[in-house]
Amino acid sequence: MNTEIKNRRYSSRYSKPVLLFMLAYFIAFSSDFISMTMFVQKLPGMFFKGMTLLSIAISIYKIYFFDTFKRKEIIIYFTILVILLADYFKYGGFVFLQLFILAIAARDIDRHTILKFSAVYLFISIFLIFCLSELGVVDNLLFIRYLNGRQIIRQSFGTIYPTVFGSMIYFFVLQFVYIKKNNSYSSVFFIAIVALVINKYTDNRLVFLLLIFLIAYIILNNIFNIEKNNSRVFTSIMKYTFLTFSIIIPIIFVYLCYNYNPSSRFYYELNKLLSNRVYLSWKGFQDYPITLFGQKVAQNGWGGLKEVSVGFVYFYLDSLPIKLLLSNGIFMFIIYIVYNFSYLKVLFRNKNIRLAVIIIFIIAYDIIDEKSIRVSLNPFLILSLGYIFDYQKIKNDSSDIKGFEDKKGIML
C-alpha cells in the first residue's frame, strides 16, 4: 500500500486492479441480491457469510497491493474503520464494513464500468427472479392488505416481501435516469408505467410517490434545463436547499418518531401516510436506549413469510435513520449525516446536478426504508469515496456519460 498523494483512474478495464474489484463487487452483489429473494431459505447462512468475507478479502488485497492514498484519507478511513469495527462487535453483521471496504476499493475504478455493470446486472437479476417466481421455481408470496375497505393483494415476485421487489425496481429506475443522457418524455412514460405496475402489484405506495416526484423533476428539467443552468444564484439556492435537506429531514423524522403521540390527529395522519413507520419507530425508542455504538434490536417482520409462532408481534424498523440510531448507534447516525452532506457538496462543486438529485431521492427513500445500504441496489454508495476525495471529478456534461448512448440518444 502506497501513501503517496496521487489521483488516478485505471485506464484499462481489463487491468488486474479493475478485475479484482469487479470480482469482489460481483460476489458481494450476487450474495446480497440472493439474500433478498426466496432462495435465502434454500441456502445456509454460512454461504452468505462466506461470500461476504471473500468479497472483503479480495477488496483488501486490491487496496493493499495496488491503491495509493492521500494522508488525509488514511486518517479519515482509519477513524471510520474503528467505528465500524466497534459497531460490528456490538451489533454484528458485515453490512457497513463490506460497503466501506468496497467503496475504498472503488475509488479509482472507472465509474462507467461500475454503473454499467450495476444497471445491467440488476436488470437481469430482477428479470430472472420474476421469471422464476412465475414458473414456480421460487415462491411468489401473496400478502393481503385492507385499505379503506378494499382488499389489496400484494405480490413479492420471488423476493421475500413485496416492498423488496418495489425497492429493486426503484433503484434500477434511479440508475436508468442517471445513465440516460437525455431523459425525454419517453423516459417519463417508461417511469410512469413502472410506477403504476409497482403500485398495483406490490402496493408500494411510498415508492410510487417518489417515482411520481421523479417524473415531475424530469419534466421540469426538460422545460427549464435545470441540470445545465449557469445562473449562480439558482445553483446556490439549489445547493443550500439540498444540503439543508440532507441534514434536516433525517433529524426531523427522528424527532417526530421520538415524540410520537398516539392521541394526536397530526401523528395519526403522518403514521397512516408512512404505513405505521412512525409508531414502530416510536416503539423502538420506548424499548431500546440510544447508544454510542449500537446494540442488537430484536425485529420480527413478515419477510419470507416464516412460520408465525404464538405470541408473535410484528416489529420492524424500516426507516434507515431510525435503524442506524437504534441498531448502530449515534456515531453511525452522525457518519450517515456527514456522508450525505459531503457527497452533495462535492457534486455541486463539480456541477453534477443530476447525481445530486439522485442522492436526494435516495435520502428521501431512506426515511421509509433502509435498502439504500444494499450493495446490489445502490452503486452510488460504492462510488461515493472516489467523488468525495476527488479521485473522479464528475461534471454533468457529455464526458460524464460517454458511451452510454449513441448520437440518437439510444441506450447502448
From TrEMBL:
The chain crosses the membrane at residues 18-40, 46-64, 76-106, 118-138, 159-178, 206-225, 237-258, 324-341. Keywords: Membrane, Transmembrane, Transmembrane helix. The keyword Glycoprotein does not apply. Signal peptide: none annotated. The keyword Hydrolase does not apply. It comes from the Bacteria. This is Polysaccharide polymerase. It comes from Floricoccus penangensis.
